[in-house]
Design goal:
It catalyses: shikimate + ATP = 3-phosphoshikimate + ADP + H(+). The protein is α/β, with parallel strands linked by helices and 188 residues long. The protein has helices at 9-18, 33-44, 51-59, 63-70, 72-88, 104-113, 123-130, 144-159, 173-187; strands at residues 23-26, 48-50, 93-95, 115-120, 164-167. It contains nine helices and five strands; from the N terminus they run H-E-H-E-H-H-H-E-H-E-H-H-E-H. The chain has a five-stranded parallel β-sheet with strand order 2-3-1-4-5, sandwiched between helices.
Length: 188
């Protein structure tokens, strides 16, 4: 699918001036939250922060190690505290882990203080993208396609709570960032 319009620097600047809170990217692993988030931050001339990177830095351990040692509930609690801190620090673009927005407390926190963008794409694209690296604890327990399909089904209702929904498909990251800006502009 080819994107018809390309926003001018002046249009992007106009949108950037209207954004009065952090933009938080949510969605399944592999939808492009980190990659697209960096492009979006660059376009908006703001900073980008990845929640998983911040958690690993704060814990001095990998996400996988935290999951293995303490379990998912412990991880989600720490994740929520990190997200709250990042929003308080007024970062421009924040990429969350795939399960963050599913946690009701974290979702309420994000919806109350940020613009939540649900990035979404088809299962084939997710399987292809997530197969590139072996750092996804939830995909180590079985067939990635089945796991991702199940996660998508179970998390869809939570992700649908985001103010904005953008389909990423297999579009170039810059095109997806443009779609996000247009969606933010329309929402504002």
């Amino acid at each position: 699918m080819t994107h018809a319009t390309i926003l001018t620097p002046a249009q992007i600047d106009g949108i950037a001036r209207r954004i009065d809170r952090p933009v938080v990217l949510v969605g399944l692993m592999g939808v492009g939250k980190s990659t697209v988030g960096r492009r979006l931050a660059n376009m908006l001339q703001t900073d980008f922060v990845d929640v998983d990177d911040e958690i690993e830095r704060a814990a001095d351990r990998t996400i996988s190690e935290i999951f293995e040692t303490h379990g998912e509930a412990y991880f989600r609690d720490g994740e929520r505290r990190v997200i709250a801190r990042l929003m308080d620090e007024a970062h421009g673009i924040i990429a969350t882990g795939g399960g963050a927005f599913v946690d009701s407390e974290t979702r309420a926190l994000i919806l109350g203080q940020a613009i939540a963008i649900w990035l979404d794409c088809d299962i084939d694209t997710l399987v292809e993208r997530t197969s590139r690296r072996d750092n996804r604890p939830l995909l180590r327990t079985g067939d990635p396609r089945e796991i991702l399909s199940g996660l998508k089904d179970r998390r869809r209702a939570a992700y649908a709570g985001a103010q904005i929904h953008v389909i990423t498909d297999n579009a170039p990251h810059t095109e997806t960032a443009q779609r996000i800006l247009e969606a933010i502009d329309a929402w504002l």
